[in-house]
Each structure stands twice: as structure tokens, then as C-alpha cells.
From TrEMBL:
Residues 271-381 are annotated as: Disordered. PROSITE patterns: ABC_TM1F (PS50929). Keywords: Membrane, Transmembrane, Transmembrane helix. PANTHER family: ALPHA-TECTORIN-RELATED, MUCIN-5AC-LIKE ISOFORM X2. One of its GO terms (cellular component) is membrane. The keyword Transmembrane applies. This is ABC transmembrane type-1 domain-containing protein. The keyword Transmembrane helix applies. One of its GO terms (molecular function) is ATP binding. Residues 48-200 form the ABC transmembrane type-1 domain. It comes from Dreissena polymorpha. Coiled coil: none annotated. InterPro entries: ABC1_TM_dom, Alpha-tectorin.
Length: 391
């Protein structure tokens, strides 16, 4: 009985220690979860700060690009103004040169015309002198008429020459004007080409800026992908921790269910009967003979022990696993275990019974002593039934 009680107390102490250990494990796991959540929050804050810094850097780069564009536009405007001023100066120089050339040509033409006119006048004078000679020689009317006709012809020739000279001058002026127009057109074409080149340069700069912006956007997208991957990994870690908690809870369940669902039936029947009977009879009589009789009866102990132990254990385990393509795994595990243990111990003990009778007879007296000692039978029956059911 004392040993059974001690075993029960030890079992209770072990159960309490197991419960305390499990509670400590649960507390440690909760602390770990809290620490992981704090780490996650810190990581998220760091990532947000990094994103803000990147956005600020992007804004600064955009502002710098805008400033550069404005500076380039200002420089282009200044260059255009300088080019226009240079073109105006060139046009003025060209006009001055043309005027100088024209003036020189006009002077030359005037000189040439004067010379021609002088030559013509000289020839006319010669002709007049000849005509006078002819007049002197020929004083007839017909000759005079011929002379008049000749004079008229000469005048007409002079007029024709003058007209031709004027036409030549007009043609020269037209040619100069055409040359000026061609020069102006060439200058305009050059300006247009310069403008086109500037526009192309601006387009190239804009394309470069767009490429830079696209690269920055790609960098931002990569950073966002990295952040998403980190979050995914953190969620996976949390999932694993939750699975570990579930496993621990299942272990706790499996450990506590046998303790909660254990049915212990202990039946102890102890019958102890002790009967001690001592009878002493003394009688005195006078007999002539002496007889001594000693009778000893010894009864041995018979012990019968019967132990019957029956254990029945039934375990059923069903596992179902379903896997889909969206990275979702469902695992269902059903475990049924039934353990029945029956122990029956029957102990029968028969104690020793001793009966001693002593008779002493002397000449003068007879003494009879009877001693009877009887120890009762002790029967102990212990029946223990243990049923463990857990799922």
C-alpha cells in the first residue's frame, strides 16, 4: 500500500514537472514570436526609410535634370542670338561689299562710257570735218541731203549704243540681286540646318534623360521586388513558427490526454484475522504412576499467488496530404490509439497454526499444560485496470 501511494505521488510530481516545462516552452515560444514580430517591424521601417531616401534622391535628380535642361535652353537661346547677330553683321558686311563693288563698277562704267562718248565725239568731229570738206568740195544739194541722212544715222547709232549700255547695266543689277537672293537663301538654309541640329541635340538629351529615368524606375522596381521577397520570407518564417507551435500544442495534447483520459481502478481487499487462544489448565491428582506425554503438532504455511495481466493496444493512423499549384499544402493526420491494460493479482496466505499439549504426571501430582496458538489466514486481492485513449 505504501509503495503504491509513493508511486502515485511520484507520478503526480512528474506530471506537474512536465506541465511546468511545457508552460515554460510555450512562454519561450511566445517571446520568440514577439521578438520576430519586432524584427519584422524594424525591417519594415528600415525598408520604408530606404524607399523614402530613394524617392528623395529621385526628386533631387529630377530637379538637377530640369536645371540642366533650363541651362541648356538658355545656352541655346544665347547661341541663337549670337548667331543672329553674326548673321546680321555678315549681311551688313556683304551689303557694304556689294555697295562698294557696285560703286566701283559704276565708276568704271562711267569712265568707260565717258571714254566711249569721247571716242564717238572724236569720230563725229572727224566726220564733221570730212563733211565740211565735202561741203566745201561738194556744194550741191544732194550731198547735203546725204550728209543730213548720215548725221541722223549717227545719232540713231548713238542712241542705240546708249540703250544697249543701259540694258547691260540693268542686267548687271539683276544679276547682283539674284546673287544676293542666293546668298540669303544659303544663309537661311544654314540657319535651318543649325536649328535642326540643335533640335536633334535636344531630342538626344531628352532621350538620355528618359533613359536615365527608366533606369531609375527599374531600380525602384527591383528594390520593391526585393522588399516583397523579404516580406514573403518573413511570412514563411512566421508560418514555420506557427507550425512549430501547432506541433508543440499537438505534443502537449498527446502528452496530456493520456493523463486526463487514464482510468485507474485499484481495488484492494485485505482481510486480516488474528486469533490467539491460550488455555492453561492445571489439575492435581494423586496417581501412583508417572506418565509424561509430549504431543507436538506443526502446521506449515501454504501460499498461493495468482497473477493475470492482459494488455490490449489498438492504434489507427490516417494521413491525408493535398497539394495545389498555389503553394498551399493541407495535411490532415488522424491518429487513434486505444490501450487497455488489466492486471489482477490474487494472493492467499495461510499462516502457521501450532498446538502443543504437555502432560506431566508425577507420584504426587499430575500437571497438564495445553498451549494452542492459531494465526488467521490473510487474503489480499489487487485489481488494477488502466485505459488509455488518445486521438
Amino acid at each position: 500500500m505504501i509503495s503504491v501511494l509513493q508511486q502515485q505521488q511520484q507520478l503526480l510530481l512528474l506530471q506537474q514537472q512536465l506541465l511546468l516545462l511545457l508552460l515554460l516552452l510555450l512562454l519561450l515560444l511566445l517571446l520568440l514570436l514577439l521578438l520576430l514580430l519586432l524584427l519584422l517591424l524594424l525591417l519594415l521601417l528600415l525598408l520604408l526609410l530606404l524607399l523614402l531616401l530613394l524617392l528623395l534622391l529621385l526628386l533631387l535628380l529630377l530637379l538637377l535634370l530640369l536645371l540642366l535642361l533650363l541651362l541648356l535652353l538658355l545656352l541655346l537661346l544665347l547661341l541663337l542670338l549670337l548667331l543672329l547677330l553674326l548673321l546680321l553683321l555678315l549681311l551688313r558686311l556683304l551689303l557694304l561689299l556689294l555697295l562698294l563693288v557696285l560703286l566701283r563698277r559704276r565708276r568704271l562704267l562711267r569712265l568707260q562710257l565717258l571714254l566711249l562718248l569721247l571716242l564717238l565725239l572724236l569720230r563725229l568731229l572727224r566726220l564733221l570735218l570730212r563733211l565740211r570738206r565735202l561741203r566745201l568740195l561738194l556744194r550741191r544739194r544732194r550731198l547735203r541731203r546725204l550728209l543730213r541722212l548720215l548725221r541722223l544715222l549717227l545719232l540713231l547709232l548713238l542712241l542705240l549704243l546708249l540703250l544697249l549700255l543701259l540694258l547691260l547695266l540693268l542686267l548687271l543689277l539683276l544679276l547682283l540681286l539674284l546673287l544676293l537672293l542666293l546668298l540669303l537663301l544659303l544663309l537661311l538654309l544654314l540657319l535651318l540646318l543649325l536649328l535642326l541640329l540643335l533640335l536633334l541635340l535636344l531630342l538626344l538629351l531628352l532621350l538620355l534623360q528618359l533613359l536615365l529615368l527608366l533606369q531609375l524606375l527599374l531600380l525602384l522596381l527591383l528594390l520593391l521586388q526585393l522588399l516583397l521577397l523579404l516580406l514573403h520570407l518573413l511570412l514563411l518564417l512566421l508560418h514555420l513558427l506557427l507550425l512549430l507551435l501547432l506541433l508543440l500544442l499537438l505534443l502537449l495534447h498527446l502528452l496530456l490526454l493520456p493523463l486526463l483520459l487514464t482510468y485507474t481502478s485499484t481495488s484492494t481487499i485485505t482481510t486480516s484475522t488474528t486469533t490467539t487462544s491460550t488455555t492453561t489448565t492445571t489439575s492435581t491428582s494423586t496417581t501412583t504412576s508417572t506418565t509424561t506425554t509430549t504431543s507436538t503438532t506443526t502446521t506449515t504455511t501454504t501460499t498461493t499467488a495468482t497473477t493475470t495481466t492482459t494488455t490490449t493496444s489498438t492504434t489507427t493512423t490516417t494521413t491525408t496530404t493535398t497539394t495545389t499549384t498555389t503553394t498551399t499544402t493541407t495535411t490532415t493526420t488522424t491518429t487513434s490509439s486505444t490501450t487497455t491494460s488489466t492486471s489482477t493479482t490474487t494472493s492467499t496466505t495461510t499462516t502457521t497454526s501450532t498446538s502443543t499439549t504437555t502432560t506431566s504426571t508425577t507420584n504426587s501430582s499430575t500437571s497438564t499444560t495445553t498451549t494452542s496458538t492459531t494465526t488467521s489466514t490473510s487474503t489480499t486481492t489487487t485489481s488494477t485496470t488502466t485505459i488509455n485513449i488518445f486521438t
